């Protein structure tokens, strides 16, 4: 049997708005992924640790507070430093278009902004996970 | 037997309509009936169910004349970056005809951390203004007469600290505490259920809240000591009925806690206020506002035996639904906000914040805030909606819907009572689960196009990237840290230590009211992080119940 894709859904920073994270987590689970949700206020260290412990294929971060430029790249660097070279890292939330190229350069593979159907996220993960 | 005739006519109409609908099918999945008639209001009793505005059960509003004498307070939520920047925005809003202030604090402030705490990195000044010490609060209200303006502060876990800072600033301006008007949100239960900016576990949090009730009833009598908030519950994805049901259940928990702490219900109930969301479905929202007033009046009179009519009134601030704004074609949001404004006004709100068109993308710019405020002014002065009290009262549809929402609300309250009240229901994850279910259903309805969102899943266009969005300068963090370091160097550190030690001792004694001690600490420039740190040490921190 093929191993199921494992996704860590994470809320970095202090932002408490997790409607999007939870809806995405549930949609991914309904699509057949194994989903671990970290809960709120996770530091980049905690997210990295969870990704390692849970041996995930994907880290999906959600942030609405505007701290994405600080926190997303931090998570990417820590995850890579821990040797998780193949883990797909994606982000979502209220993220200005102007910030997306910078985030991609920092190693976030895709950024999903408000109005994205969960189906697009599922499709993206299926096509890009290693 | 007029009803028999009407029933027969209704049957005739339905038969006819079904033939028409067979040829031209109606849209599917519509939430409400096709048509409402007196048949939907069986047993309706005007005096019992509606009464007159300003009278029990307040279905038609809490004041006898509503907006004919005075419009609702137009209170725009604002705050970003530093106290210096936010002070400019407040003064701009007051000069533009805003009639109250509403402060947004950044996340570190809301969770009780100073700007120099490592956990605050990247978050300083982002979703609101950063407040570390009384110094920031003095700057925030510079040249704003706190004796004249009313201020609402969206602050929950550290509400006691921010209220103390406000009282201290007023004192410096020469305004006594009994002349202060405003509201602190101070609603911790919805933080556990829907918004996430909690600090302490429920028990000490409830103590802080009842301490505030008691302190204010004696010292700051015109202050609204809590704004029991459905807004965030709705933003997290609940339905209209869930929004008011879970919020009123929270309200019951606060009143219970205060009575248990030895307070007399009529001494504090008149200062409880509520906070609703104005969502897209205009008439459902109007019915929700009306139903909520009726439920709360019954709760206060029948369940808690309050005697003062002021204790029975559900007074409400409203904000239009941020989660209904779209990043796509943001100008469309102006229309959404106008409809939501109409709903709030026809529903009888006492105060209103209208969101700006660009808020699905960033914090609003000065221009977009002005349009949002102008929307309220146009509804107030030009639309006629504010000329008549409860203009939709008597509409078959709105009355039937008011009854339906009220019934759904009571069903939830009973279920929550059976679980042991709102605190227990939240600890068991029940309320979170119900909200998540509704949020997921909404998303699936949008994806399957059973629910259309203009510009998102239909009527899309190719769009250029939006321009001119507000960005908070990354240098704010450093600026704020330096300011805090300066305050810490210049203040009387021995006094700070003494006041914090006294607070710590008081935290350990459940019978002590913490407000006077927090006020003492604030006045010697102890920081928010230091004060919350002391309370964290004694009270511990809340660990969320995570479930999907």
From TrEMBL, chain A:
Cofactor(s) essential for the protein: adenosylcob(III)alamin
Ranges for domain B12-binding: 4-130
Sorted UniProt keywords: Cobalamin, Cobalt, Isomerase, Metal-binding
Claim: Cytoplasm is one of the keywords in the record: no
Pfam family, one: B12-binding
Species of origin: Anaeroselena agilis
Protein name: Cobalamin B12-binding domain-containing protein
PROSITE patterns: B12_BINDING
TrEMBL record, chain B:
Keywords recorded for this protein, A-Z: Coiled coil, Isomerase
Superkingdom field: Bacteria
UniProt xrefs under SUPFAM superfamilies: Cobalamin (vitamin B12)-dependent enzymes
Boundaries of every Methylmalonyl-CoA mutase alpha/beta chain catalytic domain copy: 28-541
CDD domains: MM_CoA_mutase_ICM_like (cd03680)
Pfam families: MM_CoA_mutase
Keyword match Coiled coil: yes
Coiled coil regions in record: 486-513
Alphabetized PANTHER family for the sequence: METHYLMALONYL-COA MUTASE, LARGE SUBUNIT, METHYLMALONYL-COA MUTASE, MITOCHONDRIAL-RELATED
Protein name, UniProt field: Methylmalonyl-CoA mutase family protein
Organism: Anaeroselena agilis
């Amino acid at each position: 049997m093929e191993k199921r894709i494992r996704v860590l859904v994470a809320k970095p920073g202090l932002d408490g708005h997790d409607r999007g994270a939870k809806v995405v987590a549930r949609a991914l689970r309904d699509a057949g992924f194994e989903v671990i949700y970290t809960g709120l206020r996770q530091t980049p260290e905690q997210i990295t640790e969870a990704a390692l412990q849970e041996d995930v294929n994907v880290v999906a971060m959600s942030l609405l507070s505007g701290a994405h430029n600080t926190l997303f790249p931090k998570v990417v660097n820590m995850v890579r430093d821990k040797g998780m070279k193949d883990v797909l890292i994606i982000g979502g939330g209220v993220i200005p278009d102007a910030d997306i190229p910078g985030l991609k350069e920092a190693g976030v593979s895709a950024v999903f902004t408000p109005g994205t159907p969960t189906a697009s996220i599922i499709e993206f993960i299926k096509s890009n996970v290693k | 037997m007029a009803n028999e005739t009407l029933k027969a006519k209704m049957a005739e109409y339905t038969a006819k309509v079904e033939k028409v609908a067979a040829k031209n099918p109606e849209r599917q999945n519509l939430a409400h009936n096709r048509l409402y008639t007196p048949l939907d209001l069986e047993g309706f009793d005007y005096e019992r169910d509606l009464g007159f505005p300003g009278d029990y059960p307040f279905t038609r509003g809490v004041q006898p004349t509503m907006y004919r004498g005075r419009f609702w307070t137009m209170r725009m939520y604002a705050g970003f970056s530093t106290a210096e920047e936010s002070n400019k925005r407040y003064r701009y809003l007051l000069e533009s005809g805003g009639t109250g202030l509403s402060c947004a604090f950044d996340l570190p402030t809301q969770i009780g951390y100073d700007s120099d705490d490592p956990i605050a990195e990247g978050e300083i000044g982002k979703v609101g203004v950063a407040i570390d010490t009384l110094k920031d609060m003095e700057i925030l209200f510079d040249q704003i007469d706190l004796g004249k303006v009313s201020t609402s502060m969206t602050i929950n876990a550290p509400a006691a600290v921010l209220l103390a800072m406000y009282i201290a600033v007023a004192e410096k301006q020469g305004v006594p505490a009994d002349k202060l008007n405003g509201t602190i949100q101070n609603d911790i239960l919805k933080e556990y259920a829907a918004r996430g900016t909690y600090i302490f576990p429920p028990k000490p949090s409830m103590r802080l809240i009842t301490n505030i009730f008691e302190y204010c009833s004696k010292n700051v009598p015109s202050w609204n000591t809590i704004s029991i908030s459905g807004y965030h519950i709705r933003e997290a994805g609940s339905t209209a009925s869930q929004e008011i049901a879970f919020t009123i259940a929270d309200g019951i928990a606060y009143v219970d806690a205060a009575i248990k702490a030895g307070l007399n219900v009529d001494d504090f109930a008149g200062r409880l206020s509520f906070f609703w969301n104005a969502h897209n479905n205009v008439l459902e929202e109007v019915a929700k506002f009306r139903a909520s007033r009726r439920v709360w009046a019954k709760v206060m009179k029948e369940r808690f035996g309050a005697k003062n009519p002021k204790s029975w009134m559900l007074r409400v601030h409203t904000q239009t639904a941020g989660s209904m704004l779209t990043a796509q074609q943001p100008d469309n949001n102006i229309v959404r906000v106008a409809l939501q404004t109409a709903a709030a006004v026809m529903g009888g709100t006492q105060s209103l914040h209208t969101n700006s068109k660009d808020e699905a993308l960033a914090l609003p710019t000065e221009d977009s805030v002005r349009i949002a405020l102008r929307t309220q002014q146009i509804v107030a002065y030009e639309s006629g909606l504010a000329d008549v009290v409860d203009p939709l009262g008597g509409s078959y549809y709105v009355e039937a819907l008011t009854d339906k929402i009220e019934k759904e609300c009571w069903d939830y309250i009973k279920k929550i009572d059976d679980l042991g009240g709102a605190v227990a229901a939240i600890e068991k994850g029940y309320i979170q689960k119900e909200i998540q279910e509704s949020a997921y259903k909404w998303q699936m309805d949008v994806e399957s196009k059973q629910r259309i969102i203009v510009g998102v899943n239909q009527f899309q266009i190719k769009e250029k990237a939006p321009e001119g969005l507000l960005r908070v300068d990354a240098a704010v963090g450093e600026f704020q840290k330096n300011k805090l370091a300066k305050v810490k160097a210049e203040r009387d550190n021995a006094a700070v230590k003494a006041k914090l030690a006294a607070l710590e001792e008081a935290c350990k004694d459940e019978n002590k009211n913490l407000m006077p001690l927090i006020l003492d600490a604030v006045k010697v420039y102890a920081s928010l992080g230091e004060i919350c740190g002391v309370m964290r040490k004694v009270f511990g921190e809340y660990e969320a119940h995570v479930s999907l």
